[in-house]
């Protein structure tokens, strides 16, 4: 049986952040995941405590958490941005500390978008170093750092837009830092938008997959609103032995609480 976890940074936006874990629980889910849930890259201790309490009080598992990024600002990751990588590093211990207290073992570190005034090679070198720092910290609690591909249609300046691109990053981090606790966050919405076939992804990269996320294509709404073959995905995941959570990272076509009819 598929275990779904609700991404409460894209779903339940009608509610304040701290009310979303309870809303997910009320909708029948036992897991939640978040992008960086704070306004600041390094939040105050009181804000961290409030977030942890909201998850614990809701009675849900925090199945995944992003390291600090600036999605509202369009940066899609700070770890490869020379001007802001300090913000990424400053929050590593905060992220790992939250994960340790809530039993979270999947931590997503988004690659940064390309910058006009910085050479690609400089960004790539910095990304490897910072992935290494994040992975070393995560290793202390038995956690895995996830690497995700986005799609170039919606994120044209994002450099990692394929499964092979993710593998290249993971391999380079292992070779240059010795950290091997990195895995593929396979968001099949983004991969499908880039023309990747589900069966091919699972056959070629299945052993790298540490977490799965879904949304229907092409609109990124809930399952049943597009043309993505979810039956093929679930059959394929079972075949490769994936038994982890499947993250619901879709934009609800209406109210979030009304978007789960497909899961009846």
TrEMBL record:
GO molecular function: isomerase activity
Keywords: Isomerase
Record's keyword annotation contains Transcription regulation: no
Coiled coil regions, renumbered to chain: none
Residue stretches making up the Xylose isomerase-like TIM barrel domain: 22-254
Taxonomy, superkingdom: Bacteria
Annotated signal peptide: none
One Pfam family this sequence matches: AP_endonuc_2
InterPro entries: HyI-like, Sugar_Epim/Isomerase, Xyl_isomerase-like_sf, Xyl_isomerase-like_TIM-brl
PANTHER family: HYDROXYPYRUVATE ISOMERASE-RELATED (PTHR43489:SF6), ISOMERASE (PTHR43489)
Family classification: Belongs to the hyi family.
Entry protein name: Hydroxypyruvate isomerase family protein
């Amino acid at each position: 049986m598929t275990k779904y976890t609700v991404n409460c940074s894209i779903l339940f936006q009608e509610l304040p952040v701290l009310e979303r874990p309870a809303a997910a629980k009320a909708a029948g889910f036992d897991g939640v995941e978040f992008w960086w849930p704070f306004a600041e890259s390094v939040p105050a201790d009181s804000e961290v405590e409030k977030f942890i309490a909201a998850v614990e009080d809701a009675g849900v598992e925090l199945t995944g958490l992003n390291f600090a990024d600036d999605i509202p600002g369009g940066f899609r990751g700070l770890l490869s941005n020379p001007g802001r990588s300090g913000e990424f590093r400053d929050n590593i211990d905060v992220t790992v500390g939250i994960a340790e207290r809530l039993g979270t073992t999947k931590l997503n570190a988004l690659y940064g978008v390309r910058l006009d005034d910085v050479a690609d090679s400089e960004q790539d070198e910095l990304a490897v170093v910072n992935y290494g720092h994040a992975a070393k910290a995560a290793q202390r609690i038995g956690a895995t750092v996830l690497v995700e591909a986005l799609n170039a249609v919606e994120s044209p300046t994002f450099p990692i837009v394929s499964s092979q691109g993710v593998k290249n990053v993971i391999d380079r981090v292992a070779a240059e830092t010795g950290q091997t606790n990195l895995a593929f966050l396979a968001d099949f919405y983004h991969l499908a938008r880039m023309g990747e076939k589900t069966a091919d992804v699972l056959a070629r990269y299945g052993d790298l997959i540490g977490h799965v996320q879904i949304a229907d294509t092409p609109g990124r709404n809930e399952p049943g609103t597009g043309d993505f073959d979810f039956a093929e995905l679930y059959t394929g995941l079972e075949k490769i032995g994936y038994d982890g959570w499947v993250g619901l990272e879709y934009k609800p076509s209406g109210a979030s609480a009304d978007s789960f009819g497909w899961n009846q």
